[in-house]
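Retry 2 of 3 after timeout on previous attempt. Resubmitting structure tokens to design endpoint.
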């Protein structure tokens, strides 16, 4: 972090840049946000010889890639954990370059438990649920308007003709396959367009030593100023003026904004002149989703060591329904629960102790009353994170294939650029989507320089 004297010196240096316009290439770029998108963009621009400064509001780099060191012998990832689809994925290349150890988790190693903990046949239950889901979604094709997934399903003839136990199964399927995946609540997710994304082939692999070390090499040698919250970005005659919470102001030829959609939606940064109407509409239309994690650490493995995923058809839709055993990946007796959407929001109102008690209640229903309390726990509350205001973006009702393209790209005749997870039409909600978006943005900027 810079002290006041250093910041003033840096400000003076920034003011010495050549004037913008004519054939003069941009000399100085300010990147706002040191997540994987911002670091990816800054790395490319710095390697191409531009003078790049990265401004980051947190006290650390990485953004939503954030490895907790609360358990020194067991790093856990509070944000992103997996490379989703390792083949051809740009994050795989970063991981290889960093020499990061990876471990595969597989949905083939899953089990499904009924409300009382009885083991159910997961393949036939999911096949039935998928059939119901596709039938309900097909009915939407007959209408022209978009609806939330909940409205589309509950309003469908398929739902209305089905008995209550199938409602519970279908609701579990939606929670597991859509709410947990896209972090969007089924009452907000677009039934028509929730799944506009694409995937890389290959396994899902996580990092037993944590995700943060994977991106550290990207930041090496860059001018990154942490603890610097940007409050305003203005277009002025000399370029772009960026104001910080501290009152300092920095000048550059161009700025790249990579802050999360939640930050843009909250209006934490004032843009003057206002953003293009299509970009503002995209910000207002997309949803900022919520996915939270809760790790419970035990003295020994008290569940099948052969499974990665434990699904529970518990009594309350979407509460404590999906668990990851970290035993195969890390050889540790740790369970990690996921809650998403409205359920996650509701659970955030509990303190750590009450959250762990609620999780423990679920485990006793799943595995019997004698299931012990964990000896340690960690809990996330992403909707309260003032640097993100949520986990990652999802396609809310009204989103179309054009929405994210309207968010990405440039304003102010190219002086203001946007990148980040939410700007990726193909891979939103992922680290690789964010990285590719940052690199695309840098490439565009270099091309127009
Ligand atoms: C719980 C959870 C689980 C996830 N799981 C996965 C997964 O397994 N695999 C996967 O690929 N992806 C996963 N993701 C998504 C992935 O983490 C993100 O898509 C990706 O990290 C976003 O990168 P980014 O650079 O776009 O944004 P960020 O990483 O959020 O970076 C933006 C930066 O801007 C900073 N900032 C905010 N406001 C300001 C301001 N006013 N001034 C200056 N700086 C500011 C923020 O602090 C942040 O560092 C998960 C995310 C969460 C939260």
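Retry 2 succeeded. Sequence:
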């Amino acid at each position: 972090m810079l002290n006041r004297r250093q910041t003033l010196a840096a400000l003076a240096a920034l003011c010495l840049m050549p004037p913008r316009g004519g054939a003069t290439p941009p000399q100085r770029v300010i990147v706002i946000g040191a997540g994987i998108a911002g670091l990816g963009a800054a790395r490319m621009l710095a390697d191409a010889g531009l003078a790049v400064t990265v401004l980051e509001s947190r006290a650390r780099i990485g953004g939503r890639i954030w490895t907790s060191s609360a358990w020194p012998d067991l790093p856990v990832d509070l944000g992103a954990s997996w490379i989703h689809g390792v083949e051809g994925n740009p994050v795989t290349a970063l991981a290889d370059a960093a020499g990061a150890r990876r471990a595969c988790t597989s949905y083939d190693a899953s089990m499904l438990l009924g409300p009382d903990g009885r083991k159910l046949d997961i393949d036939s239950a999911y096949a039935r649920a998928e059939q119901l889901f596709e039938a309900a979604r097909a009915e939407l094709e007959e209408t022209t308007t978009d609806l939330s997934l909940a409205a589309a399903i509950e309003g469908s003839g398929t739902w209305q003709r089905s008995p209550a136990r199938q409602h519970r199964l279908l609701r579990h399927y939606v929670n597991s396959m859509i709410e947990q995946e896209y972090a969007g609540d089924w009452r907000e997710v677009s039934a028509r367009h929730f799944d506009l994304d694409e995937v890389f082939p290959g396994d899902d692999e996580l990092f037993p030593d944590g995700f943060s070390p994977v991106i550290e090499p990207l930041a090496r040698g860059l001018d990154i100023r942490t603890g610097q919250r940007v409050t305003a970005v203005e277009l002025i005659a000399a370029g772009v003026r960026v104001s910080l919470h501290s009152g300092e102001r920095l000048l550059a030829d161009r700025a790249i904004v990579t802050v999360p959609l939640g930050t843009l939606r909250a209006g934490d940064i004032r843009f003057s002149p206002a953003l293009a109407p299509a970009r503002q509409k995209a910000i207002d239309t997309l949803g900022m989703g919520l996915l939270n994690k809760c790790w419970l650490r035990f003295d020994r493995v008290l569940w099948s060591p052969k499974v990665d995923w434990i699904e529970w058809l518990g009594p309350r839709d979407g509460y404590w329904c999906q668990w990851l055993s970290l035993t195969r990946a890390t050889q540790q007796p740790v369970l990690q629960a996921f809650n998403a959407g409205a359920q996650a929001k509701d659970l955030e109102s509990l303190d750590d102790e009450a959250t762990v008690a609620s999780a423990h209640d679920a485990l006793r229903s799943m595995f019997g009353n004698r299931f012990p309390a964990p000896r340690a726990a960690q809990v996330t509350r992403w909707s309260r994170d003032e640097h993100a205001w949520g986990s990652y973006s999802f396609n809310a009702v009204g989103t179309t294939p054009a929405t994210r393209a309207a968010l990405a790209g440039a304003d102010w005749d190219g002086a203001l650029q946007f990148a980040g997870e939410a700007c990726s039409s193909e891979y939103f909600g992922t680290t690789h989507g964010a990285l590719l978006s940052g690199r695309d943005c840098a490439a565009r900027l270099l091309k127009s320089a």
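Attempt log closed. Confidence is low (pLDDT under 50) at residues 1-23.
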